[in-house]
């Protein structure tokens, strides 16, 4: 069973011994291992209530417990070829039966387990008018009003628009964005309804609320008088639209949204409210004075011999001046406050993603852990320099935390700093539902001057340079990874 | 030209019995080789890598000795050093190497042996044209002919690969053994399942078919006849094969093919083909002709020893396995001879399959007349016989950096033999980055210029930059060099035309689709490298085109790192 995120290596390499603990690599290795494994329906089936492999056909007759939908299929091991043993045949057969049972499981919902939402596509657009302040609540895009908030899901979805005047009907209801509503409908958590009348019929203004009237409105099949229930297909056709359509979401974005939600993240539409203020360039007086005295050492010397050699023949006491004269092409220096125009088009941060954590409230969002832009793999290309700069400069300043300086204990710290980068963003490349997530980091090799280590060497190693020799053996240790032709 | 390889670092002490020149399997017969290692002169203790690659660039620095306040004498030492250096005035770069521009290979050749070593050791420039990376063809030749016991990186790589292969074989064999064990256990249980019942014979004729293969088993075990397969095992196998009896024909064929082709890439087939035979019987429903055929071909496998499947250049073109193919008789006799064990083989390196060849009476005695064997027996003088035919190839970027940046290389024209000026070399490099080469009409986005900007950028920061075509990228970045560690970063160069002037001209960088990016990134993550997209912002064509330094200053370089973001691993 092939998965889209499967690694091409049949055998992931064992953890690599290095002189410094580089977490990133080991994570990658584990990642490869996790990707390798395949869904094991037997374990999943046995996790279902009253299920189990032996339960077999009895499974689907059991009444569904509410927590079933929160379970996901775990992954097991795979065989590559049939080797004609009964053991293997039995395992395959049980797996098949388990998968069949899982797929034929009847999912039901008790009435008190789902919410009801009403579709009002133009309500807030009319109320808010054209001049919506960039408040980051996406008020004009909120198209579904929840009758009552219920369950875990609403902890991170829907917003009551506090700023709205109290005479507006539905002001005290939680309003959903299209992707949230569609996701809830897909999960079976939301019964979506199309209102027959206006919003006042369903959510009467506060002064008219006397409880009695609403009771009357909800008669035997009273909901049908107010509005029709909508199918999942109807929900898709209502909520999926093109880029820029108000009250709709593109299919690519919705797929990314629901995949992130199902993977356990909390997702909110990117809003400028969540970006931390850029760090101000506060220099103390002393720093400023100091910078006046010692004119900053420019990376590129003023004059170069036009026809080389850049390194003028002569006596050199250290490698620093040699490399200084080699420095010709201007190096990028990351700044916290770039003057790049705001990103346009698909390469814009679409979602803010949070790791699930206790105490998360949708009204008081913390700083997002990740920022995700969603692009279509078929209609866009790898971003060019302008798009890349604009996208990354729209994300907050996030310089590497690891201590800088050439005197670090190993090259690993330098690698870590370079790999962390100064800004980062995730681009979800959506190819018709297959989503690949790539993390782009703005890095600056010019900030890490490798040549500064060359002069430090004789001091550390001494005359024998025996300490260095041990380091030389590292390459061999890594080369010995079994199972693959790997790095060369 | 663009191949890159990391030399295996020198081991502190060479292992005594390490096979250097021969390409035997580890499980191949060892004894014949032992006397040879005595003849080979013991290798001197290898120079530490840090000593060999002491200089990061071909320029030596003369740091003043440090001053210790506790030791006043150190001050005198500093003064003394300073005075001597001032008097002798070491001028770096002390040596300017010479290269030849070769239009045919579009690269610069360095033929002087000293220059080759210097350029390789001091910054890892270029590539030996007969080697994967380090120009060590001569060393390899000497090691191969056995005249000198040396550390050759390629040898270690090969050896490591063999070990890995062996490990995979062993693993596959263990899996197969486990499966066979399960099968045997299951065969002891009476057939109850529907498929097993269907497989049972329906009529006496079916039964006869089923019984026929067992004769074949008896026959083949006779062929083996050397007591290597325990008889109990054989009987077990025959009963087991009656029950499951599928796939044995195909597996037998693949086994034969594996042995004949020397193809060791099949993990599914066990190595111990010669000692135990997992599928002795063909399936009962096989026609008689194919049965006979299988029997005949199968006989090849019954050699009591595992043959080497690695072939040297000096090996005979076709190992005479053909005698073994002809029929049972010859195989039997061959086995008989071989198990006596007294086959004198003098030159294992020349005859990895020598036991087969030498045992047949048709061929002459195994005293070889080939020049290599004579050389190797007459020991040391052989190194004189091998002439170093290798030269160093520098890519255009490397050559121009050495000439323009460091000033340690002068390039001569191939035809006229005259020294090329830096400007001439620059123009040649730019022109030859097109096909057909251009003489004029140079653009600021010449492929050479864009690549050179990146090369110069990273070299000027102290990285060792090597071509990365093997990894699907443009350059690889090494810290200190490939002899020390693996490359950490892989560079993909992306030209960029963000200047408004370019936009008005309608110039755009070639678009890369996401599939390209993912495939490149996948390759890098399998090789545990990190992909870096390096955007080179190209300036508009201007007046300063002639001046190399000020032209290069107009390029802008931005680096963006790329990593997969596995959705399931970042959740904590």
UniProtKB/TrEMBL annotation, chain A:
| Ranges of Basic and acidic residues composition bias in the record | 74-85
- Name a Pfam family for this protein: tRNA_int_end_N2
State what protein this is by name: tRNA-splicing endonuclease subunit Sen54 N-terminal domain-containing protein
The protein's matches in InterPro entries, at most eight in alphabetical order, are given as: tRNA_splic_suSen54, tRNA_splic_suSen54_N
Q: Where is the tRNA-splicing endonuclease subunit Sen54 N-terminal domain?
A: 100-194
Chain residue ranges for the region called Disordered: 1-23, 45-85, 452-488
Q: Which family does the similarity line name?
A: Belongs to the SEN54 family.
* Alphabetized UniProt keyword annotations: tRNA processing
Instruction: Enumerate composition-biased segments (Gly residues).
Output: 49-58, 470-488
UniProtKB/TrEMBL annotation, chain B:
Q: Which Gene3D superfamilies match?
A: 3.40.1350.10
Biased composition of type Basic and acidic residues is found at 151-169
Superkingdom assignment: Eukaryota
Region Disordered, residue ranges? 1-47, 143-169, 261-289
Comp. bias regions, Polar residues: 20-30
Q: What is its EC number?
A: 4.6.1.16
Keyword field contains Lyase: yes
Please write the reaction equations for the catalytic activity of this protein: pretRNA = a 3'-half-tRNA molecule with a 5'-OH end + a 5'-half-tRNA molecule with a 2',3'-cyclic phosphate end + an intron with a 2',3'-cyclic phosphate and a 5'-hydroxyl terminus
The record's PANTHER family line, in alphabetical order, gives:
TRNA-SPLICING ENDONUCLEASE SUBUNIT SEN2
What is the recorded name of this protein?
tRNA-intron lyase
């Amino acid at each position: 069973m092939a998965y889209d995120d499967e690694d091409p290596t049949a055998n992931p390499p064992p953890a690599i011994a290095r002189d410094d603990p580089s977490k990133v690599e080991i994570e990658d290795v584990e990642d490869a291992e996790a990707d390798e494994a395949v869904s094991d329906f037997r374990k999943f089936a046995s996790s279902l209530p009253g299920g189990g492999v032996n339960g077999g056909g009895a499974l689907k007759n059991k009444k569904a417990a509410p927590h079933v939908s929160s379970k996901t299929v775990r992954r097991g091991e795979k065989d590559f070829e049939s080797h004609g043993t009964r053991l293997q045949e039995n395992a395959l057969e049980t797996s098949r039966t388990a998968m069949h049972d899982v797929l034929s499981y009847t999912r039901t919902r008790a009435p008190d387990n789902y919410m009801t939402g009403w579709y009002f596509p133009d309500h807030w657009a009319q109320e808010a008018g054209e001049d919506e302040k960039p408040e980051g609540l996406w008020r004009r895009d909120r198209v579904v009003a929840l009758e009552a908030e219920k369950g875990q899901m609403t902890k991170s979805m829907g917003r009551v628009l506090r700023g709205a005047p109290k005479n507006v009907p539905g002001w005290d209801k939680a309003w959903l964005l299209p992707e949230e509503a569609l996701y809830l409908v897909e999960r079976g958590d939301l019964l979506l309804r199309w209102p027959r009348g206006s919003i006042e019929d369903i959510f009467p203004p506060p002064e008219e609320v006397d409880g009695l009237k609403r009771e009357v409105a909800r008669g035997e099949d009273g909901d049908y008088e107010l509005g029709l229930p909508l199918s999942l297909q109807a929900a898709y056709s209502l909520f999926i639209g093109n880029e820029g359509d108000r009250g709709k979401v593109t299919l690519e974005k919705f797929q990314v949204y629901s995949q992130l939600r199902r993977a356990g993240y909390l997702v909110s539409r990117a809003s400028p409210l969540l970006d931390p203020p850029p760090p101000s360039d506060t220099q103390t007086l002393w720093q400023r004075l100091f910078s006046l005295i010692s004119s900053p050492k420019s990376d590129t010397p003023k004059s170069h011999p036009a026809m080389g050699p850049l390194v003028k023949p002569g006596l050199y006491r250290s490698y620093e001046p040699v490399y200084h004269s080699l420095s010709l092409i201007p190096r990028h220096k990351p700044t916290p406050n770039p003057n790049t125009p705001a990103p346009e088009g698909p390469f814009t941060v679409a979602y803010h993603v949070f790791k699930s954590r206790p105490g998360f409230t949708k009204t008081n969002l913390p700083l997002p852990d990740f920022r995700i832009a969603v692009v279509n793999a078929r209609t866009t290309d790898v971003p060019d320099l302008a798009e890349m700069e604009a996208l990354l400069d729209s994300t907050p300043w996030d310089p590497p935390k690891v201590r800088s300086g050439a005197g670090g204990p190993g090259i690993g710290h330098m690698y870590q700093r370079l790999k962390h980068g100064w800004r980062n963003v995730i681009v979800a490349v959506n190819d018709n539902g297959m989503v690949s997530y790539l993390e782009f980091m703005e890095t600056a090799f010019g900030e890490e001057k490798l040549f500064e280590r060359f002069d430090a060497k004789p001091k550390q190693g001494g005359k024998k340079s025996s300490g260095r020799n041990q380091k030389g053996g590292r390459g061999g240790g890594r080369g010995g990874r079994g199972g693959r032709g790997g790095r060369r | 030209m663009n191949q890159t390889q990391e030399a295996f670092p020198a081991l502190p002490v060479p292992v005594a019995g390490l096979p250097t020149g021969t390409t035997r399997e580890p499980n191949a017969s060892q004894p014949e080789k032992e006397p040879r290692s005595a003849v080979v002169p013991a290798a001197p203790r290898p120079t530490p890598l840090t000593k060999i690659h002491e200089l990061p660039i071909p320029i030596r620095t003369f740091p003043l000795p440090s001053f210790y306040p506790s030791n006043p004498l150190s001050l005198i030492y500093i003064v003394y050093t300073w005075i001597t250096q001032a008097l002798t005035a070491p001028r770096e770069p002390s040596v300017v190497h010479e290269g030849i521009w070769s239009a045919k290979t579009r690269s610069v050749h360095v033929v002087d042996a000293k220059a080759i070593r210097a350029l390789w050791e001091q910054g890892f420039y270029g590539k030996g044209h007969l080697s994967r990376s380090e120009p060590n063809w001569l060393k390899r030749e000497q090691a191969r002919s056995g005249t000198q016991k040396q550390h050759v990186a390629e040898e270690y790589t090969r050896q490591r690969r063999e070990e890995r292969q062996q490990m995979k074989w062993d693993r596959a064999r263990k899996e197969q053994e486990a499966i066979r064990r399960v099968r045997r256990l299951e065969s002891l249980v009476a057939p109850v399942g529907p498929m097993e019942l269907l497989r049972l014979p329906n009529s006496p004729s079916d039964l006869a078919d089923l019984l026929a293969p067992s004769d074949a088993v008896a026959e083949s075990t006779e062929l083996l006849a050397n007591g290597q397969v325990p008889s109990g095992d054989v009987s077990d196998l025959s009963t087991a094969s009656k029950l499951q009896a599928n796939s044995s024909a195909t597996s037998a064929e693949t086994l034969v093919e594996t042995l004949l082709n020397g193809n060791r890439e099949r993990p599914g087939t066990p190595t111990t083909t010669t000692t135990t035979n997992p599928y002795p019987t063909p399936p009962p429903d096989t026609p008689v002709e194919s049965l006979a055929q299988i029997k005949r071909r199968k006989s090849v496998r019954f050699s009591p020893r595992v043959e080497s499947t690695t072939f040297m250049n000096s090996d005979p073109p076709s190992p005479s396995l053909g005698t073994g193919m002809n029929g049972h008789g010859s195989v039997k006799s061959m086995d008989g001879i071989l198990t006596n064990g007294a086959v004198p083989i003098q030159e294992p390196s020349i005859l990895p399959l020598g036991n087969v060849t030498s045992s047949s009476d048709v061929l002459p005695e195994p005293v070889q007349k080939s020049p290599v064997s004579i050389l190797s027996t007459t020991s040391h003088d052989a190194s004189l016989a091998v002439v170093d035919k290798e030269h160093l190839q520098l890519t255009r970027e490397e050559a121009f950096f050495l000439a323009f940046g460091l000033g340690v290389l002068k390039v001569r024209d191939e035809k006229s033999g005259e020294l090329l000026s830096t400007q001439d070399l620059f123009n040649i490099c730019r022109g030859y980055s097109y096909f057909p080469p251009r003489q004029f009409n140079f653009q600021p986005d010449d492929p050479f210029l864009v690549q050179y900007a990146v090369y110069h950028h990273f070299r000027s920061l102290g990285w060792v930059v090597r071509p990365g075509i093997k990894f699907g990228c443009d350059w690889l970045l090494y810290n200190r060099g490939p002899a020390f560690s693996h490359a950490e970063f892989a560079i993909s160069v992306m030209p960029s035309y963000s200047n408004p002037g370019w936009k008005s001209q309608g110039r755009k960088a070639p678009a890369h689709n996401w599939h390209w990016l993912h495939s490149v990134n996948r390759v890098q993550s399998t090789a545990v490298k990190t992909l870096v997209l390096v955007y080179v912002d190209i300036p508009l064509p201007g007046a300063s085109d002639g001046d190399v330094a000020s032209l290069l200053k107009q390029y802008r370089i931005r680096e963006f790192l790329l990593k997969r973001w596995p959705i399931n691993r970042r959740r904590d």
